[in-house]
Amino acid sequence: MTEEKLTFAQLFLRRYDRAIGSGVCSFSQTGIGAMNFTNMCVNKDFVIADDEIIIKACRIMKLPQEDIDLLLQLAAEGRDDD
To answer: What's the domain count of the chain?
Structure first.
């Protein structure tokens, strides 16, 4: 069985769930609009269009730089697939 590579939305939501669950931040602090968030929840291939929003949310969630870099890489790959 091969393991499918996670998409931006899948990885982001895993990190988001961990941050919210641990009390690190709230949804409103992340700066992610409701439409972007909803799109990530219902479409595993959705990518937030603006890297600055991604970076801000990652910093609010206190993600390590490795996670931020990976999310930005997945975002760029997801945009290239369009």
So the answer is: 1
Please check whether residue 35 lies inside any domain of the structure. Answer: yes
Kindly state whether residue 1 falls inside one of the protein's structural domains. no
How far is it, in rounded angstroms, from Cα 60 to Cα 56? 6
Phi/psi at 26 (nearest 5 deg)? -115, 165
Length of the chain, please? 82
Q: In whole angstroms, what is the distance from residue 81 CA to residue 78 CA? A: 5
Identify the pLDDT of residue 40. Answer: 96
Q: What burial class does residue 57 get, using C-beta atoms within 10 Å of its C-beta: 0-12 exposed, 13-18 middle, 19+ buried? A: buried
> CA-to-CA distance for 68 and 82, rounded, in angstroms?
22
Q: What is the pLDDT of residues 9-67, one digit of tens each?
A: 999 999 999 999 999 999 999 999 999 999 999 999 999 999 999 999 999 999 999 99
Helix (H) or strand (E) holding 65: helix 65-80
